[in-house]
Amino acid sequence: MKVKPWTTLVFLLPNLLGFLAFTMIPIGASLLLAFFAWDLFSEPTFVGLRNFYDLVGFRLGEHGGVEAVNPRFWYYGYNTLFLMLGLPFSLLGSLLLACLLNRKLYGRRFFQLIFFIPSIVSGVGIYLLWKWIFQPDYGLINQLLWQVGIVGPRWLESSLWAKPALMAMGFWGSVGGMNMLLYLAALQNINPELYEAAEVDGAKGWQQFWNITWPTVSPTTFFILIMGIIGGFQGGFDSAYVMTRGGPAGSTTTLSYYIYETGFQFFYMGRASAASWLLFLMVMVFTWINWKVAGKRVHY
Amino acid sequence: MLFLLLLGLAGCGREDENLVLLTPGGRMRPAVAAAVAEFEREHPGVKVQVVTTPGQDYYVKSLAMLAGKAHVDVLWMGQGFGIFAGRGALRDLTPFVERDGGFDLALFRPEVVDWYRLGPQLYGIPYGVDVMTIAYNKEIFDAAGVAYPTSDWNLEEMLEIARKVTRIDSRSGRVKVAGLGMESLDYRYHGLKFLSDDQRRFALNTERGREWLERNVELIHRERILQRGADLQSMDRLSGFFNAQTAMIEFATWDLPEAEKRALFAWDVVAIPIGAGGKRSSWASSNGFCMARDTRQPDLAWELLKKVTGIGFQRSVLNATIPTQPTLYPEFLQAHPHPKQVGELLEMQDFMQPNARIALFQEVDSEWIYWKEQALLKKLPVAEALAKAESHINRILDLHYEGKEP
């Protein structure tokens, strides 16, 4: 049966209208806004590229030398990248956990559930829980350290330890979550005959993992890596908002938190839009590099 | 069909007879509920919708609502006044005050009323004042054999006491009791100002400003008598004091109910010490209500505003703020049998130095906190941090005053 083009369009129209109204038009508006100064109250003023200059530009300092116009933006970019260093650990942890839970062990369904729980619990609840765990005077970690004679750091109050603390929390939350399930699904799709053949050839556990498991799950690894990098660039807002308000000294402020702060606390809507587009460019460039570099190592 | 039905339903509301009141909730919630109930009884047919946004998000959400032309008539306002008034989000109350024969602005403490002025316009009516004092744990003082402070003490004496009561565990090197529990020693104690009088220049990058910041670094890192709060924005900052880990803390009016409930030891308050140049100065803020610029029913909103700032309302919030009508001071003192020296809070009203009332205060303050923390955490030398703060804050102010940013 031949479907008339109009019929197709009518069926697609509700979705298309929603997409235009709630996605495309706001995206277009934010691109436009990136070239304006606007605080929601007064009329928007065209400022050309100044919002971008205010974020990533350089100028002659009052006391000589060249300085960044907005060193905080660069620092928050660094924070965002630093927090993403946890990604390879969580990726490997998920794979390890999936390998363990893929074995025919007693109670593995129970452990699958237990490890998945952090992914279904409310994020705010988890952040509050970890805020107490990191509490320097009464928190669980420092109390345990104190039992063995170590004076723990003041975790979230220390500009040195706040980021590693958030990374540790992120690891706990992500290692047993969706990534583990994806790996579990990938592992269950590996043909057992491959392992049997390897055993006949005398391959041991590590050799089997390196030559069969790792290449076979590489599409999953690639997918997790891409999504992790995209999520990493966009991340850090909720934990900063609930646990640290971006402090101390901005050490847990990420680009997404900075965008929120610029837009909804300082009401620089144009600059916040410009920062969002810069973030988008960063995500695009890193994803492209990832695609070019890691994509070649994927075995489909 | 459904669209038409929804459109019809949307038109059914009698919104014109409703008022929307924004508050941050908290301890004022029962007082607001009672005032609103009384207002509704006096104005049959008028309903007041109270929208509560607790904590720090209050200003952000309220400003976003006003910017989005949401229905707002009356809103609570504290030290964020400049952010709203500077953007033209509030309505001038002068005509209402002049027209209303039953309202006497002279009954309110004048300098606090002035905090709600921008130019000749009056944008709010205050019902409460928040001041700072120093609260101290008498038992820690007794254990160290140190006399209790009196209101004529000065900054050096406070630091000397802090040194005497600080106890460091010799085995672990951990501070068991810190003399001072505060975010940092306020620049006001050193007789300094954050912005110039015309509010166009950062004013702390001076010789005395450097001395003040360097002294803070010393107190935190070398002497270790100043313990910074765990969470400066919440009640957690009081935890160290309630757990007898800090001997003295900066204590605000709103801390009274919590301290009266939680402190299991003998404690009291004393005025902020006399600072550099023999002057006493301390941060202060206020609680009041303003009218939204775009209110649809200004006359009704004015009536509601009077209700939530009047003497009856002030009486119902005596537990956590100083009333702005001095006739209520005896009742305020009576409401707080503990601490004994609660009168010191009233005395501190003579030394109040509130935050600058500028539209971009939040951004300027955030920039300052960033650079100050760089120095306090020893990530940058003090002189460099102050120079950077000056450079960046002045640029923000320049862009604003030159009209390049709204």
The total beta strand count of chain A reads 4
Beta-strand content estimate of chain B: 15-25%
Q: How does the helix and strand content of chain B classify structurally?
A: alpha/beta
Question: Overall pLDDT of chain A, averaged?
Answer: 90
Q: How do the SSEs of chain B run, as a string of H and E?
A: HEHEHEHHHEEEHHEEHEHEHEEHHEHHHH
In terms of quaternary structure, what is this?
Answer: heterodimer
Structure summarized in a few sentences:
The complex is a heterodimer of chains A (300) and B (406). Chain A is 68% helix and 3% strand. Chain A is mainly alpha-helical.
Descriptive overview:
- The complex is a heterodimer of chains A (300) and B (406).
- Chain A is mostly helical and 300 residues long.
- Chain A contains 15 helices and four strands.
- In chain A, the strands form two sheets. Chain A has a two-stranded antiparallel sheet with strand order 1-2. Chain A has a two-stranded antiparallel sheet with strand order 3-4.
- Helices cover 40% and strands 16% of the residues of chain B.
- In chain B, strand 4 and strand 5 form a beta hairpin.
- About 1% of the residues of chain B have low confidence.
- Chains A and B meet through loops of A and helix 3, helix 16 and helix 17 of B.
Helices and strands, with pairings:
The complex is a heterodimer of chains A (300) and B (406).
Chain A: H1 5-33, E1 36-37, E2 45-46, H2 50-56, E3 58-60, E4 66-68, H3 71-83, H4 86-101, H5 108-120, H6 123-133, H7 140-147, H8 162-175, H9 178-188, H10 192-200, H11 205-216, H12 218-234, H13 237-244, H14 255-264, H15 269-293
Antiparallel strand pairs in A: 1-2, 3-4
Helix pairs in contact in A: 2-15, 4-8, 4-9, 6-13, 12-15, 13-14, 14-15
Chain B: H1 2-12, E1 18-23, H2 29-42, E2 47-52, H3 57-67, E3 74-77, H4 81-85, H5 94-99, H6 110-114, E4 117-118, E5 121-122, E6 124-137, H7 138-144, H8 155-165, E7 167-168, E8 175-181, H9 207-222, E9 226-227, H10 239-242, E10 246-252, H11 256-262, E11 267-270, E12 284-291, H12 298-307, H13 311-316, E13 322-323, H14 329-335, H15 343-347, H16 361-376, H17 382-401
Parallel strand pairs in B: 1-2, 1-3, 8-9, 8-10
Antiparallel strand pairs in B: 3-12, 4-5, 6-10, 6-11, 6-12, 6-13, 7-8
